[in-house]
Specification:
The complex is a heterodimer of chains A (about 775) and B (about 270). By secondary structure, chain A is an alpha+beta fold. Chain A is built from 21 helices and 28 strands. A 7-stranded mixed beta sheet of chain A has the order 3-5-1-12-9-10-11, with helices on both faces. Chain A has a 5-stranded mixed beta sheet with strand order 7-15-14-13-8. A 4-stranded mixed beta sheet of chain A has the order 18-26-27-28, sandwiched between helices. The longest helix of chain A has 28 residues, at about 540-570. A 5-stranded antiparallel beta sheet of chain B has the order 4-5-10-6-7. A 4-stranded antiparallel beta sheet of chain B has the order 11-12-13-14, sandwiched between helices. Chain B is globular. Chain B starts with 6 loop residues before the first strand and ends with a helix. The chains are: A alpha+beta (about 775), B alpha+beta (about 270). Chains A and B meet through helix 4, helix 9 and helix 21 of A and helix 12 of B. The structure holds flavin-adenine dinucleotide. Flavin-adenine dinucleotide binds next to strand 2, helix 2, helix 6 and helix 7 of chain B.
């Protein structure tokens, strides 16, 4: 018998034919009979009191169905937006955020009114006619100034601008620093970023008054969360509230939360008694969808002259924005994994969440882990520079070497082989030759730099034992596997996808585990009407947690099928052999039953005594630990000292995400992830006017999303160190590329500029910024 | 990202276009490729009450050589310039510029008349028109490029004036164009064009002031025999950049000098 295995097979994505022929089903593809269109009037001010809103002209405009403001929504929306504990259970302040501003706007883009009209053109035209009388108030923009006791307030009813202030001490930090022969200090910034999914957000809400029933189509990573919270606030129970999210054109973390527009569109549908569509336009998206990063790290490292790392002290200042993001405090995870892939005697971290009059921040690809990696990998290079050691050797010397490894904060790294990925990457880029080339070019006045990133990542969120106290929720995942009478299989999962190919990879797992043809497996997600409760897609969890929930259901199905086979063959269960979907009595493979035959029998009569009909199972998987992908990225850049321009010469990555279900999908995730990290290093930054709080990068002309043309060739390779945390042996790969890459580029640029005495470069490494640094260094 | 309401008309001739502009009044606008106008309208930064779409006027799509002059119809698109054999021989620097305007979509729709009429300092062709003393032909008169660009996005065109063609001197000498950008499809952060013309050099600057600029000081230095570096050192008086989200004015000044040297060296090497 031919042995086939789909797990590990480089098969093409099942999603692609539909998407590349234009048959995707995104929110703007949803059109209902009698549907009205909503446009949102947003505050142009970062901070202002609303004196009055005059909607009369808008209400009189052509095609207008309704113009609504806070007072109109109050009778329908009974709860503020949710905020999770996320590592900081005892927040100093959790101000309530109602879906629409009433008397004070505290960020540019905050909704003040909605206009509903017969089409979107008419809605936008009428929105221009809503007259809001604002009294501008001072905008709080600077993180450090915002912390001062005499700072103006982000919102008048707050005690100060502090959202949280949490300390994370581990070990005797004073002793570690007392032992130090060298101490390096650095402030490291993480600029704000737009997540910029290709599909902006949007929703269609259909409230049926007759039976108090809601269907909400929305572009989200968390359909069950949306149902829980929006339904809860509107007083519609889960049984009456269906959230549908078909194809999601990207999210990168920005669609991880229930959004105020979901509340507003649903309530508006209830008020106007018609289906209502709202599509976020791009300009709106840049203001109204949560931003990523927005942090400053003040860091100190104690080390010995021989390169031994001793102690790490840092403070994370995090720009929360106007209101807490639902998961913004998750980014405090940077404190717990700030030590990276290295051994430390002690770590002392502190995170301060600070409110400003800007759009809220929330997770963006990596969420806290790119920041932690960027910080520790930067500091390790600074230590290497200080003591004159090769950065690769300093890393190797301090790597965690035995697994499982309990880090300073009690988190357990499940498996790893850090020197192996480092060695492989150095071999792939031919490190020795590259260093020689660097020296040769320097002699010619050319500036080549080499940058390392040896990252470790925490993902697969997460074990309830850890997430319940930290995040306030048990981030388990669910599945339902149903074998139909003639053998095709429907799998419904609680997680969702926003571009990661779950329809392909999950089907690969099911086909192998049940021994059924790949094409007979159908994956359902994103519809609360036909999927079990799940926590959604983020934190590189869908495979390590969701995939395992699928495995668990498949095992239950196989167990029952084995019983059915034993019954059919009049043999004992122990004597049944299961081989790629064929069930036979040991020693007699010629006479076998397929799972389809057993499924057919399962729905009929004559089952074993006490057995119920059907062949299906539901499972919830609560992982015993997180999973810990790791790897080594090496980037080589050349900097033009005259223009400050950076060109990437080589980009080599060796990643280890445990066992691989589909190498092509893993490579795809790495390509996108690395591109986003490079993009943060070189291009993207959300800029605001620091006085007025106006966004300066409000269009895609000014906010630089790179294209393929700006990307180097990615030279990918991998090692495979299976995870002991789950039966599949898998880790996550959705965020690894982004976590690793920004610092590989920045370390390379810094390395290129060391002849000028430059030790540190902030992101994005804009040409004008590099040029002025070089100019100053030369002066 | 949805435009305000407007009326729309598609004339078949320049005369008809002019009378439509008169009829619709001051707030009407010509639309050609729409690659500058539509983005402004979608942001509602421009809210014309009517659009007069000149795409139906076939006579504006010609490229003609007239002795020492090459006349390019207003509706000639970037992609037409890229593919035009006559232009490749008579005005190769324009073809080089066209190759790097925006992306394929922009080049398939955007027109030279649109670039000129929009008068954007970042429009690559505007600096070229200025430095080569081009003539801008309209339904009403001929403008000299040197008198045409008045201020940010402001030209000498009157409300009912339709650009019909641009006339460049045939320029077959050595040339180079450097467009410094962060991304391949970006507008120039700074652009430097140099063209040999008879025994002298012409220099033009893209996106380095409120209007396109001619490198008169650099040209004069070159004429008096200065080296590339010494001539480029004069560029500061030819430009007047401002700081913006892309870069500081100081950087742009420095960059201009560096690019001027490099562009002159590149052209001389041709
Ligand atoms: C993403 C992107 C990148 C771009 N990059 C570049 C670049 O790098 N370099 C560059 O030079 N350009 C660039 N452009 C602009 C592009 O070249 C436009 O095509 C050009 O600026 C305008 O030409 P158009 O035909 O599209 O004009 P339209 O957008 O139709 O019109 C522009 C203006 O000119 C007026 N107008 C147009 N034609 C006439 C006429 N014949 N008579 C009188 N008035 C007229 C209109 O009323 C309007 O005010 C870019 C555009 C985009 C969208």
């Amino acid at each position: 018998m031919a042995v086939t295995s789909l797990i590990g097979a480089r098969i093409q994505r099942r999603e692609d034919p539909k998407l590349i022929t234009g048959h995707g089903n995104f929110i703007d593809d949803v059109n209902l009979v009698n549907m009205a269109h909503m446009s949102i009037v947003r505050s142009p001010h970062a901070h202002a009191r609303i004196r009055s809103i005059d909607t009369s002209a808008a209400r009189a405009a052509q095609g207008v169905v309704a113009v609504l403001a806070a007072g109109d929504f109050k009778p329908h929306i009974h709860a503020p937006l949710p905020v999770t504990n996320a590592f900081v259970a005892d927040k100093k302040q959790v101000p309530d955020q109602f879906a629409i501003a009433e008397d004070e706007v505290i960020y540019a883009g905050e909704p003040v009114a909605v206009v509903v009209a017969e089409d979107r053109y008419l809605a936008d035209d009428a929105a221009q006619l809503v007259v809001v009388d604002y009294e501008p108030l001072p905008a709080v923009m600077d993180l450090e100034k915002a912390m001062a006791p005499d700072s103006p307030l982000v919102k008048s009813d707050r005690s100060d601008n502090i959202g949280w202030d949490a300390a994370f001490p581990a070990g005797d930090i004073d002793a570690a620093f007392a032992e130090a022969e060298v101490v390096v200090k650095q402030r490291i910034g993480q600029q704000r970023l737009f997540p910029t999914p290709m599909e902006t957000r949007g929703c269609v809400a259909d409230y049926v008054p007759y039976d108090n029933r809601v269907t909400l189509w929305t572009s989200t990573q968390v359909p069950h969360f949306v149902r829980l919270f929006v339904g809860g606030a509107l007083g519609v129970p889960e049984s009456q509230f269906r959230v549908i999210s078909h194809d999601v054109g990207g999210g990168f973390g920005s669609k991880i939360r229930p959004y105020l527009e979901e509340y507003l569109t649903t309530a508006t549908s209830k008020i106007v008694e018609r289906p209502v569509k709202w599509i976020e336009d791009r300009t709106e998206s840049l203001l109204a969808t949560t931003h990523g990063r927005g942090q400053i790290f003040d860091v100190e490292v104690a080390a010995r002259r021989d390169g031994t790392l001793l102690g790490l002290k840092f403070t994370q200042l995090l720009d929360i924005g106007a209101y807490h993001g639902v998961f913004s405090a998750f980014q405090v995870v940077a404190c717990l994994i700030g030590g990276g892939a290295y051994e430390w005697k002690a770590i002392n971290a502190r995170s301060i969440g600070i409110f400003t009059n800007r759009t809220s921040t929330d997770p963006y690809r990596g969420a806290g882990r790119p920041e932690a990696t960027h910080m520790v990998e930067r500091m390790v290079d600074l230590v290497a520079l200080e003591i004159g050691m090769d950065p690769a050797e300093l890393r190797r010397k301090n790597f965690v070497k035995s697994f499982p490894h309990t880090n300073n904060f009690g988190l357990v790294y499940d498996s790893g082989d850090y020197p192996k990925t480092l060695d492989r990457a150095m071999a792939n880029i031919d490190y020795t030759a590259l260093r020689k080339r660097q020296a040769d070019l320097r002699a010619q006045g050319r500036y080549l730099g080499i940058g390392f990133s040896t990252y470790v990542e925490i993902c697969g969120l997460g074990p309830s034992a850890a997430t319940a106290p930290a995040a306030g929720v048990a981030l388990v995942e669910s599945s339902m596997v149903r074998v139909h009478p003639t053998g095709s299989v429907t799998v419904s999962v609680g997680t969702h996808a926003h571009g990661q190919s779950h329809e392909t990879t999950f089907a690969q797992i099911v086909a192998d585990t049940l021994g059924v043809p790949y094409d007979s497996v159908e994956i359902h997600h994103g519809d609360t009407g036909d999927t079990p409760f799940g926590y959604g897609t983020y934190g590189s969890r869908s495979l390590a947690v969701g995939g395992m929930a699928i495995m668990a259901s498949c095992h239950k199905v196989v167990e029952k099928a084995t019983k059915l086979a034993a019954h059919a063959f009049e043999a004992s269960e122990e004597d049944i052999v299961v081989d790629q979907g064929r069930y036979f009595v040991r020693g007699n493979p010629g006479e076998a039953k397929s799972i389809a035959e057993l499924a057919f029998a399962s729905y009929g009569a004559g089952l074993p005594a006490g057995m119920e009909q059907g062949l299906e199972a539901v499972s919830y998987f609560d992982p015993p630990n997180f999973v810990w992908p790791f790897g080594c990225h090496i980037c080589a850049v050349e900097v033009d000292p005259e223009t400050g321009g950076v060109s990437i010469d080589r980009y080599v990555a060796v990643d280890d995400c445990g066992n691989v279900i589909n190498p092509m999908v893993v490579d795809g995730q790495l390509h996108g992830g690395i591109a986003q990290g490079i993009s943060q290093a070189l291009f993207e930054e959300v800029l605001y006017d620091e006085e007025t709080g106006q966004m300066l990068t409000g269009t895609m002309v000014d906010y630089l999303i790179p294209t393929m043309a700006e990307m180097p060739h990615f030279e990918l390779d991998r090692t495979v160190t299976p995870s002991p945390t789950n039966e599949l042996g898998v880790k996550g790969i959705g965020e690894a590329g982004t976590i690793a890459s920004s610092i590989a580029v920045i370390n390379a640029i810094t390395d290129a500029l060391t002849p000028f005495g430059i030790k540190h470069v902030e992101m994005p490494a804009r040409p004008d910024r590099l040029w002025s640094m070089i100019k100053e260094a030369r002066a | 990202m949805i435009t305000a309401p407007f009326e729309y008309a598609r004339p078949g001739s320049v005369d008809e276009a002019q009378s439509l502009l008169t009829k619709f009044g001051d707030d009407a606008k010509v639309i050609a490729g729409g690659q500058s106008l539509i983005p402004l309208m979608r942001l509602r930064l421009s809210q014309p009450t009517a659009l007069v779409d000149i795409q139906g006027i076939g006579e504006l799509k010609q490229v003609r050589r007239d002795n020492g002059t090459i006349e390019i119809g207003a509706l000639v698109r970037h992609v037409d310039i890229q593919r035009n054999a006559v232009l490749r021989e008579t005005l190769p620097i324009l073809v080089e510029m066209a190759n790097d305007v925006g992306d394929n979509q922009v080049r398939n729709l955007g027109t030279i008349g649109g670039v000129i009429a929009h008068g954007d300092a970042a429009g690559d062709y505007n600096a070229l028109a200025l430095m080569l003393d081009a003539e801008i032909v309209t339904n009403k008169r001929r403008h000299q490029a040197r008198d045409f660009y008045r201020d940010i996005l402001t030209t000498a065109l009157e409300h009912d004036e339709v650009v019909t063609a641009v006339r460049f001197p045939v320029s077959t000498g050595r040339f180079a164009y450097t467009k410094f950008r962060r991304r391949l499809y970006d507008w120039a952060l700074a652009g430097v064009a140099v063209q040999e013309s008879g025994s002298s050099w012409r220099v033009g600057y893209v996106n380095l002031a409120r209007t396109p600029r001619r490198g008169s000081a650099v040209e004069a230095a070159l004429a008096s025999g200065a080296s590339a570096a010494d001539a480029a050192a004069q560029s500061g008086s030819d430009i007047d950049p401002t700081s913006d989200v892309r870069a500081t004015a100081e950087y742009k000044r420095h960059l201009t000098e560096v690019l001027t040297v490099r562009t002159l060296q590149k052209a001389a090497a041709v």
